[in-house]
Design brief:
This protein has 24 helices and 28 strands. With 721 residues, it is of the alpha+beta class. It is elongated, with a radius of gyration of 33 Å.
Amino acid sequence: MKFPRFGILLSAFACLLAASDPHAAETDELLPVEQAFVVEARALDRGTLRLDWKLAEHYYLYRERIKVTTADAGVVLGAHELPAGEKKHDEFLGDVEVYHQNFSSTHKLTAPAGAAQVTLAVRYQGCHEVEPKICYPPHTVKLAVDLPAATGAAAASPGSDTGLLAGGAAGTTLIGGEPLPVDQAFAFEAIPGGAGEILARFTMPKGYYLYRDKTSFRADNATLAAPRWPEGRLHEDASFGQTTVYFDQVDVPVAVSNLAAGQPLHLTSTFQGCLEGSVCYPPTTRRIDVAMTGAAGANAATGATMDSAQQQTRPDAPGPGSLLAALFAALLGGLILNLMPCVLPVLSLKAISILEGGESPQRARKHVLWYTAGVVLSFAAVGLAVIALRKAGMAYGWGYQLQQPLIVAVLVYVIVAIGLSLSGVVQFGVGLTNAGQGLAQRSGPAGDFFTGVLAVVVASPCTAPFMGSALAFAFASSTLTAFLVFIALGLGLALPFLLIGFVPALGRLLPRPGMWMETLKQLLAFPMYLTAAWLIWVLGNQRGVDAIGLVLVGVIVLALALWWFERSRYGSGAWRVPALVALLLTLPPLYAIAHLERQAATPADVAGQVAFSPAKLDELRKAGKAVFVDVGADWCTTCKVNERAVLHTDAFRALLERTDTTFMVADWTNPDPAIEAFLEKFHAVGVPLYVVFRKGEEGRALPTVLTQGIVESAIEGRPAP
């Protein structure tokens, strides 16, 4: 079993880097069909043709699928003499013979005396037998073979080069409705559009379809935003089950940024599709250059436009006003995070340490600047990491790290350790300066800086309403804009501390230092313990009661290690060995948690609710049903507030019944590609996400914080209150 992916660990936010698309890497290993199976033909004499086959390593050819025909007038082909192949049982074709290595076959023919050349149509089919295992559709090549003179004097010998393939092996449309070559079945082009974007277009003949989830785009010299796919057709596919496909033609807007002026865009698309009721093509990669300069003229010349549905899903191009609004929203979102129960104790403790120190205003300003640096740089690292992951095709947003049980368990350890420090069980010294709260209590730049880092760590689950819109704006914009939004989030979180340090009048409003500070510090331990309890509950929903037991054992051993460490502070080095042993014993529970199986889904909280799936949503919409989609997670505090206030109330249930609306719940507590794709479609970078599909209408996303009035207006189609 694999370890879960790591997103953000204790104070290491800069460790996530962009990776190339693994599916694209696999696709690049597949050879084009003409290179995987090379066939050449020559005439041994006027009555015998020889076909020489060269097969690439890890490819095999079906003996029964090799057919040779000709349409030349007067030319008659006799028996095709093939060598025996290897016996193989194929799950689709039964018992077959295949070829793995180079071989030759012969074909008898009769040609008119004046014929100097014969044209052959050689049809064959083969497969790639190692990962990625695929079978190519039947393929046909045309071979032009020169015949010796009718007298026979110039008959070619088996070793001569007379009559080798002329004109190359070109894919052709087969007679009798056979599948087209891939380049004719899926025509791909990219049209430059306005506002720094392209329109990627696939055109398919009747009966051919393209997979949405098997199609990706990347650029060597620019940054591409997530493609904005229009609504496709839900198709029951023999290979992939219920999946979204496109017939005829599809236009996909893709935003482009960070492209040097005057340079063409080097665009690569990897895609896969099928002929309905027939063959499926292997993954195919196309590379084209798109001239972005003069994009408007090029767009007008080709007549490329986006339909109204596509325009509705396209985010507005960032302008100065919208950028300032997003930065303000991000600043406000970061400010709100200071009120969260997991952040407030850290901030309060640092403020207490400054008040107790009685330092000059200049020294106090240094403290707040180093704290701000820790907060802002941590947010910047998180932002760049998440942006990099999304550019690599991974649909992650704020709070996604809490989908990983191991990270949740580590956070439980950290928060319990902070609580024990606040309670006076342990005072972290120099030996544990990397352990969160110890750094928060240190004086000097290191303590201030890592207090800021710690504040970001414990703030990560507390997704606030203003953060959602700001982050959505960031991911729909350029990398620079996204970076500025994350900086604004960090400044918002650090703002109260900055005000205390730089506005002396505010500092004078705070109570004078005294014994009350020790009492307050101990009281602040209890919000930390409650936060730990909540994280343990999240962990239980992810991996069950076994995970709860394991993390509690780990917490008890951690408490023992910290208690003994404090008792041995002034003893010899040998006294600290038991504390170190106990600290090491906290690791096995983490290892076991990382290897637990995912917990089964819990029963519905609202009568009549259904679990989210793209297939079920499409089925309900086709049946003319209205649908309310709730995308949340157990670790999402805003989701739980909305559930208590609106979604799990009698008034909401009555509204659903009155309007005949289906309540569909998407649980993102654990990673789910289908839910990630749904979030991506509505440009959401985290949860909660609420979408209302009224009968016959496209989905409409609601605000992050719900009221009964907002929900009623959306479902009933009235203006928002």
